Amino acid sequence: MDTLDMLIFYSFNLGIFTLIFFIAGLIKPKWPLFFMKEPTRFTVVIITTVMIMVVMTMYGEGNRKIRAEQARLERSKMVGTSQEPETPSPSEVKPKKTKPKKQAAPEDEIPQFDSVQDAIKAFEERQ
Questions:
Q1: Distance CA 104, CA 31 (A)
Q2: Which UniProt keywords apply (predicted)?
Q3: In the chain, at which end, N or C, are there fewer CB atoms within 10 A of the end residue's CB?
Q4: 82: which residues sit within 8 A by CB, 6+ positions away?
Q5: What is the mean pLDDT of each run of 10 residues along the chain (127 residues)?
Q6: Residue 61: CB atoms within 10 Å
Q7: Predicted local distance difference test score (pLDDT) of residue 126
């Protein structure tokens, strides 16, 4: 039996046990709860409720794992690879070496003036 199906298999087994526990506990609570001095039907109902939650969780997790495994197998069939993980391989073509673009130096931004008087006029216009 596949390990993924085990959760579903055990959830059905535990579900059958829960049903038998519930029926026997409602008929005579002393039978399933033989270790208690005075068991009540309410105790049987509480234990049954918890066991039903466990059964539903096991069944849901089993189904989720099966769906995830099927999706993984579908992906591996589409890619055409085996169970090996995908690893990127470097390309055979080496990239061309390009020179970095020349950035404007601060000297290029400094305005050039013919005389000191032109520089003073430009300075006064900026203010």
A1: 92
A2: Membrane, Transmembrane, Transmembrane helix
A3: C
A4: 76
A5: 80 96 94 91 95 96 90 81 59 66 64 81 82
A6: 13
A7: 78
- Distance, CA of 66 to CA of 75 (rounded, Å): 14
| 95 backbone dihedrals φ, ψ, rounded to 5° | -70, 150
State the DSSP code for 31. T
Q: What is the dihedral of CA 32, 36, 41, 43, to 10 degrees?
A: -100
The alpha helices in 1-127, defined as continuous H runs, are: 3-27, 41-79, 106-109, 116-126
CB 62 within 8 A of CB 3: no
In this prediction, residue 24 carries a pLDDT of 94
- The residue whose two tokens read 């008087």 is 117
Residue 118 is predicted with a pLDDT of 85
Place of tokens 């039978």: 31
